[in-house]
């Protein structure tokens, strides 16, 4: 891999405007998921290093919150421009450490940058209100102020965008932030730190700490009273632990957690469009997305036709190294992910499901799980309850609207849902009946900067993106004038 700007590949943490090692001098290896080769060894922070980073962020926040919205907006805009200017290099770094195909990675860079652009503009729109007084000599005003120092813990599946959609609104609101990226994919975060420095973000306002001591760092971020807000994207299990840990200091928290998205195809649907949407929703990033479709419910009348057309389309998908031309499916993140996905398939086939396509690792590379379609799946199988996080499509049959709504909602998760149908009365009924924070209707792609991203139930709370996203980093203050 050749970068035009080699200075974007960093091996140290970015703290208080400086590139530093941990005080112990320890490092850990970042590997390429495609061939397990070592990319680089980087700084391995501990609890003490994290505490010192938080102190630097606290000092920086006191000055950052004094800047005008216009000043913050201009700096964020410069950061956005630099991301777009270097999107090819940022994409290469992302593919190297995460594995997704390079065009998809570059697309993530543009998507991630869009949050910085959006919140650069929203910084100037954190309006308050003048409220009619309750007494003749009283005047009531509300203003919005930054919540304070923020901690962000981000996942490996979108190592750029999951950071920018937290950092963008935090900085726009006047908060400083400490980002802890996933141990698998820290290089994208550090590259953002380099560009943040060039953009003129003041020292200590944006900090990136890397470590493979996940629990230790998480403990400091959740227990330290200086941190007033925690934003986390990851599994529901870890999210619950973080919520409990934040309770003692009553931090403001937002959680984007696991999902079990249904993809429903009604009898009157445009089947070709549904197949197209299914591929977009399921196979992006090799199925390693929190909003990708997990359970496919297809009406009995069109089950065979849909399955046949999907099988034909999926068989054309090219698997391989994310840097190779035309590759659409890259490796899973590690060997445990491959083992988990294979276990999901084995459980289904042992209980009567049929493999229409795939069902195993690639003969060329055992980190790549082949795009898979399972038919004749039933409720008693793991594919019904587990978040698969792999390129597997299990197709269930249904006959009535009530039946499929019940199955779709039969999960503790409530992040994203998708369905295809033409009857506008059915569309409204189903869209309102689905217990999910986001619903895609006749589309398999719903993520966008301008819409509120977030779930309900055990998929978490809080919104990212849109006009609502900045509110997660603001407090409303009421002032009564006598």
Automatic annotation (TrEMBL):
Keywords annotated in UniProt: Oxidoreductase
Query: Which EC number(s) does the record attach to this protein?
Result: 1.2.1.-
Would you say which domain of life the source belongs to? Bacteria
Q: Which residues form the active site?
A: 256
Instruction: Cite a single GO MF annotation.
Output: oxidoreductase activity
Q: Which residues does the UniProt record annotate as the domain Aldehyde dehydrogenase?
A: 19-478
- InterPro entries found in the cross-reference section: Ald_DH/histidinol_DH (IPR016161), Ald_DH_C (IPR016163), Ald_DH_CS_CYS (IPR016160), Ald_DH_CS_GLU (IPR029510), Ald_DH_N (IPR016162), Aldehyde_DH_dom (IPR015590), Aldehyde_DH_Superfamily (IPR050740), Succ_semiAld_DH (IPR010102)
Classification via NCBIfam families:
SSADH (TIGR01780)
Family classification: Belongs to the aldehyde dehydrogenase family.
Q: What is this protein called?
A: Succinate-semialdehyde dehydrogenase
- Look up and give the organism this protein is from: Flammeovirga kamogawensis
